[in-house]
Amino acid sequence: MERAAQGADGGGGSDSSSRSSSRATSAGSSPSCSLAGRGVSSRSAAAGLGGGGSRSSPGSVAASPSGGGGRRREPALEGVLSKYTNLLQGWQNRYFVLDFEAGILQYFVNEQSKHQKPRGALSLSGAIVSLSDEAPHMLVVYSANGEMYKLRAADAKEKQFWVTQLRACAKYHMETSSKMMNQVEGQQKNLVHAIESLPGSGPLTALDQDLLLLKATSAATLSCLGECLHLLQQSVHHAGQPSHKPGASENILGWHGPKSHSTEQLKNGTLGSLPSASANITWAILPNSTEDEQSLQPEPEPNSGPELVLSEDEKSDTEDKEETELGVMEDQRSIILHLISQLKLGMDLTKVVLPTFILEKRSLLEMYADFMAHPDLLLAITAGATPEERVICFVEYYLTAFHEGRKGALAKKPYNPIIGETFHCSWEVPKDRVKPKRTASHSPAGHEHSVAEDPSTSYKLRFVAEQVSHHPPISCFYCECKEKRLCVNTHVWTKSKFMGMSVGVSMIGEGVLRLLEHGEEYVFTLPSAYARSILTIPWVELGGKVSISCAKTGYSATVIFHTKPFYGGKVHRVTAEVKHNPTNTIVCKAHGEWNGTLEFTYNSGETRVIDTTTLPVYPKKIRPLEKQGPMESRNLWQEVTRYLRLGDIDAATEQKRRLEEKQRVEERKRENLHTPWQPKYFIQEGDGWVYFNPLWKAH
C-alpha cells in the first residue's frame, strides 16, 4: 500500500532534515487552490508571518465557518514538509497546500510549481492523522480510501501545528457528511413510502418494474453511502486504539437504512409468490407451519458413523464447472428486483430461499475442496528448511488457493449443504513436484497436470468435508497426507447479509495447518466474499483482513483482501506481510491479485512472481455416483444439477425444494424428540470442530 500511495512521487532533491515553512495565506495568493470564485464561507486567520521563513503559530487557521451573511476568501495552510517516497528515494522536501474548504491536502515539487498540477492529493474527509516515532517530528495521514502520507516537520512545534489543522479539517468534513446522510435518508424514506402507497392494480402499481428498480437502486445507494460513513466514523473512533481488532463478523457492515412495510411481511413469512407476469418461480421464507409434513415421511438418518472410502474406487474428476452464463435475464431480473425491494439492508439471508437460477452446479463442500487445486504447494510447506521458509511457503500457498475455488468470473452461489451431507475426494501429487516455491524449478504453464498413478512416485492427499450444523450453517473439512505428516482441520460458519446491490458472506471460523514433523501449528482465518452487481453481470470479490500465526516459531502473517473502491481502483487486490514477532522483523511482503499475478519480496532482497493462472492444476479424484452414499454431495444434488444443465429451472427448483423440506421435517422431528444431531466425521470441541481421527492423534 505504501509503495502504491507514495510511488507517484519521485525526482527532486532529498533532504531528511526538512526545514519547513508553513503559513496561512489568502486563497487569492495561492492560485493552485484559489477559492475566490467559489462563494465559500470565511474562516478567521492570523498570518503571523515573520521574516526569514518564520511560520504562523498553531491555531492561526480557524476551523469554523463564519455565520455572517458576507463571504470572504478562504485562507489555506501551506508550507514545506518532508515526505517519504520509497525505500530508494527516501525522504524528499515537498510543498504542501491544505485546502480546508475542499478538504484536500495537495503537494507539489516546490513552491514555484504550485501553479501547476499537484503531484498528489489526499481527501481528508474521514482521514486519520496520527503521530509517529518512526522518525523525528513525523506524522502520518491515513486517507479513507487507503492511501497514506508519511510526513516530517522541521520541529515539534511545526509538527503539532500541521496535526491540529489536518485533524480539524477532517473533523469538519466528517460532520458535514453526517448531516448530508440524514437528509438523504429522509428523502429515500419519502420515496419508498410514495411507491408503497400506490394501489395494487391499475396502470401504475407498487410492483411496476421501473418503480421496483428505482426503489432498489435508491436503497442500494443509501446503503453504500451509509457503509462508507460508518467505516469513516469507525476509523476515527478507533484511531487512538491500535489494539482494536475487528471480529470476523465485522467484515460485513450492519448499517440499517430505511425500513419499509414490506420488510416486515418478508420477515414474518407472509410474502408468498410473485405475480405471474414476473415469473413462475416462488420466493418463500422457510415455513414455520407443519404443512406437507405428513406427506413427507422422513427416512432413517444416515449418521450411524464414519464410512470407509476406498481410494481404489476414485477416478480423476472430469466434470466441467465453468459457469458460462453471461448475466441476468430479463425475467430473472424482475424476480431479483422484487426480492431487493422487500429485503431490509443488513438483513441476514440465512432463512431466505434464493432462486435456483443463481446457483452454480456444486455444493459448498465441494467448493472448499476446489481450494486445494494446488496440493503440490501445500505439501511443499513441510519441505521448508527453516521456520521462516515454512511460513512463507504457507502464505504463498494461501494466496494462490482462492482463484481455483471460483469457476469463472460470474458470481453464482454453491448449493447450501444439507445437514449430514459429506464430500470425499483425494489428489495424487508426483513427489518430484513437491519443493519449496523459492527453490523449485519453473513449472510449465498449463491448467491441468498429469496425475502420477504409481503410488511409489506420488503422495496421496485425502479430503473429507461435512455439514455439521444447519442453524447456524457450519461446514467442516479435513485433509491429510500421511507420508508428509501434514494435515489441515477447518470449521467455517457462513453468514450472509443483504447489502443493496450486492450480497456479503462472512466466513466465520478458523483452520489449523499442522506440520507434525516440525511440531508446528499454523492457525488461519478466511476472508469475506461479496457478490457485486447482482442486477447486471454479477461478479465475486474477496475482502477483509485475515491472519496466519504459529505460536511455536513466533511467525505471523497479515493478509488484506482489498475490495474495489467506489471510484476507480483495481479489483481483486491483495497485500500480505510476514513478520517474526520476537525480533519485530518483516521477512516477506507480497502484493498483486489473488486471481492473477502475485509478487513476493523477501528480506534478502530477492523477489519472485507467481502467476496463479499458469500454475498446474491437479484434478481431484472422486468416486462415481453409483458408488457414493446417499448423503454425498454429488449424489445428493444430482437431480438439481441435471435439471440446471438442461436449463429446466422449474424442475431444478422443485428438486431443491424437496431436499430442503426433507431436511426441515427431520429437524422438527429431532426437536420434538429432543435428539441432537450427531455428525459422522467431526466432534465439537469448545467453539470449534475437530476430525474424529486426525493425524496428530493417530501418530
Summarize the structure.
The chain is an alpha+beta fold and 699 residues long. It is 24% helix and 25% strand. The strands form five sheets. Strands 12, 13, 14, 15, 16, 17, 18, 19, 20, 21, 22, 23 and 24 form a 13-stranded antiparallel β-sheet that branches. Strands 1, 2, 3, 4, 5, 6, 7 and 8 form an eight-stranded antiparallel β-sheet that branches. A two-stranded antiparallel ribbon has the order 9-25.
Fill in the keyword field for this structure.
24% helix, PH_domain, alpha+beta, 699 residues, methylation
Describe the structure.
The chain contains 13 helices and 27 strands. The protein has helices at 2-6, 156-196, 209-237, 261-267, 330-342, 364-370, 375-379, 387-400, 402-405, 633-636, 638-646, 649-673, 695-698; strands at 23-25, 76-84, 91-99, 104-108, 120-123, 128-132, 138-142, 148-152, 315-316, 359-363, 413-415, 422-430, 458-469, 474-481, 486-498, 503-515, 520-524, 528-532, 539-550, 555-562, 573-580, 585-593, 597-602, 607-611, 621-622, 682-685, 688-691. Strands 12, 13, 14, 15, 16, 17, 18, 19, 20, 21, 22, 23 and 24 form a 13-stranded antiparallel beta sheet that branches. Strands 1, 2, 3, 4, 5, 6, 7 and 8 form an eight-stranded antiparallel beta sheet that branches. The protein has a two-stranded antiparallel ribbon with strand order 9-25. Mean pLDDT is 74; it is low at 1-8, 11-21, 25-73, 240-302, 323-329 and 439-453.
